[in-house]
Amino acid sequence: MLTVRNLAKRFGGGHETRVLFSGLDLDVASGDFIAITGESGSGKSTLLNVIAGLDSADAGTVEIDGVRLGALDDRQRSAFRRTHLGFVFQAFHLLPYLNVADNVALPLVISGCNAAERKARVACSLAEVGLAERASAHVRELSGGEMQRVAIARALIHRPKLVLADEPTGNLDVQNADQVLAVLRERVSHERAACILVTHSAHAARAAQRVYVLGATGLHCIVPG
Fold first, then answer.
1. Of 21, 91, 120, 135, which is least packed with CB atoms within 10 Å of its CB?
2. Global pTM?
3. Is residue 74 scored above 90 in pLDDT?
4. What 3 state SS string does the chain have?
């Protein structure tokens, strides 16, 4: 599903150059749920952005589902993200003026899915994350754990090949974090997607099949799957 080879990212130039990572290799298959940990500022979020084609690498290649992102122009990369990638963030990024169902439906609206199919798929997705009865609720009425489950339903509604989760439990207590991680892992497995979880939390990382630490010389597996 995902093949990363010899990836490098630097900031600055000359004597001020800072190498975030180099020589980074990673293989992720359908159904894999991996975690990437590392110190604050080590480049975890930057790595996700490079994998998603939101940021450019200084060297190396990223290939998702057989497509090399570096061979696409900006418009093609944007279209590819809409169909192949799902995103879950620490800050949820739900739209407060929409209810739960409309937030989850957004990727389908953007892709041009018809109203009847949208309604059916949203109802199914909310049931799968345990929020069927909250479809008409507004974001302000939800708990943090509920908001993150809505975000997971939205990230998976268009059946992406790869889910990128950036500190998705960072704003949650341990009980809600465990529930959200269980839902995320179950839904990714059910959809036969792959998931990369970036986290600073060793507790959250334990939900993954494999755990890597990111450093300047790349990824180092500390819990092999």
1. 120
2. 0.93
3. yes
4. CEEEEEEEEEECCHHHCEEEEEEEEEEECCCCEEEEECCCCCCHHHHHHHHCCCCCCCEEEEEECCEEHHHCCHHHHHHHHHHHEEEEECCCCCCCCCEHHHHHHHHHHHHCCCHHHHHHHHHHHHHHCCCHHHCCCEHHHCCHHHHHHHHHHHHHCCCCCEEEEECCCCCCCHHHHHHHHHHHHHHHHHHCCEEEEECCCHHHHCCCCEEEEEECCEEEEEECC
